[in-house]
Amino acid sequence: MPAITVQGAVLGAGISGAAGATEESVDLLPRGHRVGKWTVGEPIGVGGWSTVYAARPSGRAGGPDLPAEVALKIMPTAGLAPRQARRIVESAHREVELGRRTGHPRLIGLIESFVLGAPDRPALDGAIVLVMERAAGSLRELLDAGVPEADRGRLIEGICAGLAHLHRAGWVHADLKPENVLLGRDGSVKLSDFGLAAELTGTHGYAPPLGTLDYLPPERWKAPLGAQGVQVRPSADIWALGVVIHEVFASGTSPFAGATPLARGAAVQEYGEGRAPLRMDHAVPPFWRQLAADCLAPTHEARAGHTADSLLGRIAAARRTPRRRRIRPRGRARAALLAVALCATAGAALSGGTPRDDPARPTGDLTVFNADRTCRSRPAREPQCSLGLAIDPMAPYTPANVVPIRVWHGDPLTAECRLPHGLPIVDEDGHRSTQWFRVHLPTGSTPPTAWLPAVRTRTHPSLPDCPHPSP
Ligand SMILES: Nc1ncnc2c1ncn2[C@@H]1O[C@H](COP(=O)(O)OP(=O)(O)OP(=O)(O)O)[C@@H](O)[C@H]1O
């Protein structure tokens, strides 16, 4: 097994090496590899610049002081343009600084961080590793599966509590979105991904000119870019919270209409300039509608009074009001039931919930993921939202190379093996992967299997490699 060593702390990380950062990133670390005191398990998620793996303490490294399982966020720096590599190192510094100084039950815990030395694995050499508390899933997965009604208020309250702590500690998250709201096995909410977080100096801080378009407040679309980045204030997180509240109550849809993030961004700017009203889905109940409307006040000035602390106070007061009893968890037994329900839903979202059909052969459950958010929010199986399964993962992914059976976002599939190096596919969000899964088609189909590109799912079960398809 090639030697992977821990070179040093993240603060002081150098930039060196050769090879890609996100391309084929889930293949960076094979299962069973040792990284520092951790043994790598299955990949659990892929971000723009990182891959997250499950891991456990290796052999004797375990003990009462180490958690039984953790998440390793690997951020390769090798082979990147110097500016990109610097951005990753800076992003890791921010995560480490924030983790070191602001621990809280509503923020994902950072256990340690280090830089890898792997001279015989160029793609890993110089990679930054953050060892984090492991969550069971993310709010994005729960939204895709459908958030149980009874859990919605509790989830928003958890996000709000995390933001209130961050803001009190003098930080702005600057990238609040459902992907960065993780859920513990007990159903608890934990904010994560502090790579864009900005420390406040006075009323504002500076963040890199990045972020996720769907969660940017109107003022960010025109914010000037200075030498230190763009100015961000806690009110930017409050705006993002408003969007998330709407998504939680309105089946994952944004309050701003548009088929693409850019179109929704244009709608945000129109609203911010007073040229369009705020239109929320009727599914959002009155209390949460008012709260979301306050979070989505069109200017920083109008939003600034709605601090995370004040919103938290309103939620707590509503919980105490008998009229609002529906959002109050009733006692321990009720809370435990909610947690179980939440974990079950998160689990179903992660596994696809399909029983394995041949216990003798290893299979894994996948859920189809459509990167086009408008398709994710449509209940009907509209043709324009259908996705193709390829006949040949080595041939161009065109209509000529897909089976007649189509799949839609949220469909469960059973996979029997994975192909690490098929034709590279880039999804609508820019995620790129050469990985494919061979999936079962309904009984009687010819051929009996087809290929799903890994970018079309967020579940990555541990599966044997497929034999390379013959030309
Ligand atoms: N501590 C964790 N426990 C369990 N899963 C995690 C953990 N951290 C991240 N993940 C999963 O891994 C995925 C990738 O996380 P990461 O922070 O690298 O990127 P992201 O937030 O999805 O994307 P980006 O940072 O590019 O915006 C997340 O969406 C989440 O599902």
Notes on the structure:
α3 runs antiparallel to α8. The protein folds into four domains: 131 residues, Phosphorylase Kinase, domain 1, CATH 3.30.200.20; 184 residues, Transferase(Phosphotransferase) domain 1 (Transferase(Phosphotransferase), domain 1, Orthogonal Bundle); 32 residues; 100 residues, no CATH class. β21 and β22 form a beta hairpin. About 11% of the residues have low confidence. With 471 residues, it is α+β, with helices and mostly antiparallel strands. The strands form seven sheets. A seven-stranded antiparallel beta sheet has the order 1-6-7-5-4-3-2, with helices on one face. It has a four-stranded antiparallel beta sheet with strand order 15-18-21-22. A three-stranded antiparallel beta sheet has the order 8-10-11. It contains ten helices and 22 strands. It is globular. Adenosine-5'-triphosphate (ATP) binds next to β3, β5 and β7. Adenosine-5'-triphosphate binds next to β3, β5 and β7.
Strands of the largest sheet, in order across it? 1-6-7-5-4-3-2
End-to-end Cα distance: 31 Å
Low-confidence stretches: 11-25, 324-359
The largest sheet, given as strand count, sense and whether it forms a barrel, is: 7 strands, antiparallel
Shape designation: globular
Instruction: Estimate nothing, just give the exact number of structural domains.
Output: 4
Give the helix/strand class. alpha+beta
Bound molecules: adenosine-5'-triphosphate
Name of the CATH superfamily of the largest domain: Transferase(Phosphotransferase) domain 1
Binding site for ATP: 73
GO molecular function: ATP binding; protein serine/threonine kinase activity
InterPro entries: Kinase-like_dom_sf, Prot_kinase_dom, Protein_kinase_ATP_BS
Domain Protein kinase: 38-315
